[in-house]
Amino acid sequence: MGNINLRLPESLHKKARDLARKEKTSINQLVSSMLAEKISALSAEEYINARANSASKAKFKEALSKVKNTAPHELDI
Predict the structure, then answer these.
(1) What is the torsional sign of CA 50, 35, 11, 9?
(2) Given its phi and psi angles, is residue 24 left (phi above 0), alpha (psi -120 to 50 degrees) or beta?
(3) What is the pTM of this model?
(4) 27-60, pLDDT tens digit by residue?
(5) Local structure of 17: helix, strand or coil
(6) DSSP annotation string for 48-73
(7) Sequence-ordered list of residues with C-beta below 8 angstroms from that of 30, at least 6 positions apart, any chain
């Protein structure tokens, strides 16, 4: 397990301490969870952008051409 020596403004440290107490966990666990969530969100954004950049308008139109042309369901309007 790695270590990080992190300096925080006192106001942020207090909020983290209060939240950790409220959640009945340690500040270390709280920060680890928050960091994991942020990394996950950024990774998902990179993945979605990579998929979007590899998209093909021609393939999209080809797939769309296979869909039946019907009126939308009344609840979809």
Answers:
(1) negative
(2) left
(3) 0.60
(4) 999 999 999 999 999 999 999 999 999 999 999 9
(5) helix
(6) HHHHHHT--HHHHHHHHHTS---PPP
(7) 16, 19, 20, 23
